[in-house]
Amino acid sequence: ASRGSDELSGLAFLDCNTLLLCCAMGQLCLADIRQPQSLVEAVSVPSAPCSEQWCMGARHGAQGLELSSQPVARLSSRGLLTLTDLRKTSEFLALAKARVPSPGSCAEFLCVSWAPALEGYLAISGFDGTVHVYDTQSWDSSGREAEPIFVHKGHTFGGAGGSGDLPQVTVHTWHPQKPRTLLSAASDGSLHVWDWVQPCGNC
After folding, report:
1. CA 172, CA 125: separation in Å to the nearest integer?
2. Pair 98, 134: CB distance under 8 Å
3. Are residues 43 and 33 in contact, defined by beta-carbon separation less than 8 angstroms?
4. pLDDT per residue over 81-123, tens digit each?
5. Could you count the other beta carbons within 10 Å of the beta carbon of residue 22?
6. Which domains, and CATH codes, for the chain?
7. Fewest CB atoms less than 10 Å from the CB: which of 21, 72, 143, 189?
8. Tally of CA atoms within 13 A in the half-sphere of 143 that contains its CB
9. Phi first, then psi: what are they for 201, rounded to 5°?
10. Considering the entire predicted model, what is its pTM?
């Protein structure tokens, strides 16, 4: 990774030759597969405790779309969300704090993903048995707490099982064509395909 030994938490192709990597400490790096030694650190993260872990979500745009036209989202184990435009890495497009329980308690299943068929929407999971959906279009660089527009709580209704622990969402993903359909899995083996509805106040 950027310093040769950083743990990677995510990677994604931005086009057929450009690879984006996210280190567990939050740094983003760009690499060109035609030049294997040309790793470039794109942008670091806001000052944060060393123990904080990060993951990223990059939107896969349509064929022929400009390389960096979609912001990259990063999520920390404390619930901090950053949006970065790779064309201008000296500043953040937006900073927000997700409303999550027990921030920093576990980073094993952190997941952030962009909706492929809805502009500016993303989902996060990995803190508990829920998936939160956010509309980022009104976010700024203030870092204030963001209000989710929908919270999927279905995994928490299955019961605590034998261990007494509630299930934790391990991963989620968006349907590629259906704008408000997601798939999520949890530590109890449950798999949900679900839709969310835009709140009436925001219609």
Report:
1. 7
2. yes
3. no
4. 999 988 777 778 999 999 887 655 567 899 999 999 999 999 9
5. 26
6. 48-195 (2.130.10.10)
7. 189
8. 7
9. -65, -20
10. 0.86
